[in-house]
Predict the structure.
Amino acid sequence: MQGFIALNPDELGQDPAVGMDLALALGVGHLEIRTAYGSNALVLDDTQLRKIRGMADDRGLRVAALASPLWKWCRPEAVVGKVDSFGFPTQVPTTEREGWVDRALTVATILGTDRVRVFSHLDVGEQTETFLDDPLLSYALKAAERAGVRLLLENEPVCAIAEPVPLLNVLREHTGLGLWLDLGNLYEVGHGTTEAVEALAPHTEYVHVKDYVPRADGMKQFVAAGCGRVPYGEMLSVLHRVRPGLPYALETHVRERPGEALTRGAAFLRSTVPGGLA
């Protein structure tokens, strides 16, 4: 079974056409949608979303996933550090959250995808909310099932659940929830090992690929996939062995010459994942 590569147009800016045209040039047939026209996808209006869908359809491209910001939030009274939420509020009242879940499912339907990313609440110390027992998660999973959509939990370092053991606890408790596995994030929290990937692989339904090298100031410098510290050769081999045929989405975060980084990343994935990728 052969997997495929997905490209996020907003890596190249807020005009989706630019990223879509690069996808065509690279022979990439799938897209991941996160932001466009200066807004998070969840706050775009239906007309804008249909425009994006039409642009993809015209090019023969399919939206593989909606990279939503659901659960990358905390209550308004919590103190939030620096978080990249891609144009979506990080402090969301509990009374508004169900509406955002419903909106995400509507957005996914308009875009024609059956995969929606979720997080696990921002880690804000003692004010961090519990994801495992969050009633909203049960509501969202039931609503997603009715909509024919899979909710996929990303392992995000700034959120409450980023390491293998708590991830597995949630995924085993909520069998309707899949894993949006970010291999770069797994490495960042100290679990970029073949053992961790093998344990998480049976639950994995979508993969994020980004790479970086540490800077002298302790920050990360993002580079094209395969050019940094993340041990992709080992991790991708194990992941493919246990779970072949996965979607691999390039999330470079490279600011200078992002098109070049995406081009190199796509070539790296095709040469590294056993059997290649479409």
In short: The domain at 4-272 is CATH 3.20.20.150 (TIM Barrel). The chain has a mean pLDDT of 97.
